Amino acid sequence: MLTAQRACAALAAQRLVRASVSSAHTHCSLIHTSIPRQDQAELHPEWASLAKKQLKGKNPEDLIWRTPEGINIKPVYTKADSAASADELPGVFPYTRGPYPTMYTYRPWTIRQYAGFSTVEESNKFYKDNIKAGQQGLSVAFDLPTHRDVGMAGVAIDTVEDMKMLFDGIPLEKMSVSMTMNGAVIPVLAMFIVTGEEQGVSKAKLTGTIQNDILKEFMVRNTYIFPPEPSMHAIADIFAYTSKHMPKFNSISISGYHLQEAGADAILEVAYTIANGLEYCRTGLKAGLTIDEFACYITANFHKGSYFKVCMHEHQNYEGTHMELCSKQKHIKQTRICFTF
């Protein structure tokens, strides 16, 4: 019976994934055209002359290497390499330099260790130790009880009491909490809200993110519980609830990370993440929400591979391309869509 149910869910998921694949091909071509991929990357002539002497006559162009995405990486860059780039500012549409004017110069990135042990007691102690060491945010790893993985891949949370013990002694009015939960997203979020209330913290003051990215589960992770349609309905419900009652909480984290772990290169990762992001936006709109009500609580999670420059370009392209596509579909009205990474 369980096998039959999963088969039905898989068939239903194919429709959504097929739509994402079609969208991803379009977005992939957009991203390909925006990334520099010259067959002959020109080197700075003065530097090339100096390098040739140091290399005892060898060609400095041999130092150019190519990423898996086909992008040529030169050994040295100068201001001439960015002369043709658009002069954009952070906090200004299409937000390719970030959604906020001051970005990390005012508020540094929150670095949090993704962790969860078998029991709430072990996990709570680990979180407290990290906070004492200077960590300013938490990232909770949960177990997968519906996949015969109780207390193995993360912490087991079965009741509100478990959730209360998990955050015992941790002030939720001050601590941002990221929760990697997708299939059981509604009960876990509900227990987190109750835990905050038990601490005297209203849900309006809770900060953090719930992953809530079910399309990625159907595509590469396979830890979904419900079929696609009710799963997407739950996402729309969370959009509606959090936008109304939890203004400091991010209702979804669209995850490209898992796609690259499953074999995609950086370009495919961005393309599929954009496709999924647009589908989530459509889901919110179909539920009767306006884009301004929920889009500023959408975040994204990307793979930080070995190539820093590619990662930065990847993030910029996600931000800018998603904004432009939303604009073309007349989704954006007044407020900006804010993506964080």
Automatic annotation (TrEMBL):
<dbReference type="Pfam" id="PF01642">
    <property type="entry name" value="MM_CoA_mutase"/>
</dbReference>
<comment type="function">
    <text>Catalyzes the reversible isomerization of methylmalonyl-CoA (MMCoA) (generated from branched-chain amino acid metabolism and degradation of dietary odd chain fatty acids and cholesterol) to succinyl-CoA (3-carboxypropionyl-CoA), a key intermediate of the tricarboxylic acid cycle.</text>
</comment>
<keyword id="KW-0413">Isomerase</keyword>
<dbReference type="GO" id="GO:0019678">
    <property type="term" value="P:propionate metabolic process, methylmalonyl pathway"/>
</dbReference>
<dbReference type="GO" id="GO:0031419">
    <property type="term" value="F:cobalamin binding"/>
</dbReference>
<protein>
    <recommendedName>
        <fullName>Methylmalonyl-CoA mutase, mitochondrial</fullName>
    </recommendedName>
</protein>
<dbReference type="GO" id="GO:0004494">
    <property type="term" value="F:methylmalonyl-CoA mutase activity"/>
</dbReference>
<dbReference type="GO" id="GO:0005739">
    <property type="term" value="C:mitochondrion"/>
</dbReference>
<dbReference type="InterPro" id="IPR006099">
    <property type="entry name" value="MeMalonylCoA_mutase_a/b_cat"/>
</dbReference>
<dbReference type="InterPro" id="IPR006098">
    <property type="entry name" value="MMCoA_mutase_a_cat"/>
</dbReference>
<comment type="subunit">
    <text>Homodimer. Interacts (the apoenzyme form) with MMAA; the interaction is GTP dependent.</text>
</comment>
<feature type="domain" description="Methylmalonyl-CoA mutase alpha/beta chain catalytic">
    <location>
        <begin position="67"/>
        <end position="305"/>
    </location>
</feature>
<dbReference type="InterPro" id="IPR016176">
    <property type="entry name" value="Cbl-dep_enz_cat"/>
</dbReference>
